[in-house]
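Hey L., structure's done. Input below.
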Amino acid sequence: MATTADNGAVDNGGAELSDSLKTFGAVLKVLREEAGLTQEGLAPRMRYSAHYIAKIEQGRRYPPKDLPGRAEEPLGHIASRVLAAAYRSLTRRTGLASWFHQWAGIAEEALSLYAYECRAIPGLLQPEPYIRAIFERRLPPVTEDRLEREVAARLDRQRIVEQRPNTEFSLVIEQAVLERNVGGDQVTLAVIDHLLTVSRRRNAEIQIMPLRQEDHCGVDGHMYLAATQGHRRVGYTEGQRPSNLLTAPRDVQRRPLSVSPAAWADFLGRAAH
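Output:
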């Protein structure tokens, strides 16, 4: 099964660093240092955040396709060509598709991120007990060491809600997801407490969709939507097997990506806090 769920029970892009990603990151770091730039100095000239540059240099994020082109102005033409060649040589780990690395990077740089979930708590909102309840139940089971790395990776990814205070996070979760009681009463209580804590942040709005909702446009399934700094609109979907990064305008235009959190909730059918 080649899926990389943002809320489910597989590696989220930071657990096992591939040699090729670490090599690409090392190349970028050397080229940056040769140009006499810090991560903080390079980031705005490439229209990324310093945190995102750091993740790529560490081999913890799959670099976006346009990175070599963006690097030409601050690093030079030769450096851009070197990065383009390094990008083409990247290998992908079995079971971890490149589009999830790209989606994780897009989410980190987004001006707004919207999510509607009807299956599980979104990955960005999962407290550690819930993460463990999901990961420990998957088949085939993994080693204890890998489990710990994957839990740590997911918790690390959640930091973007704090690190991106100017990014608007609006998430609608089905009431049934909470009532499913994954992991038992104590885990569900931890989830509720965590949702309440995150919802107090000025950049986050979390709403619960009632079980009974006549006007509900989310019946076709979950939705993840992002708006980037370049006014690009991107969607993400995942299933039992196929998962997709949606970048083509015809695939994204039917989703209410450019709306406010209130209009987003209205689109689904007014959710109650």
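The radius of gyration is 19 Å. The longest strand covers residues 168-174.

-- N.
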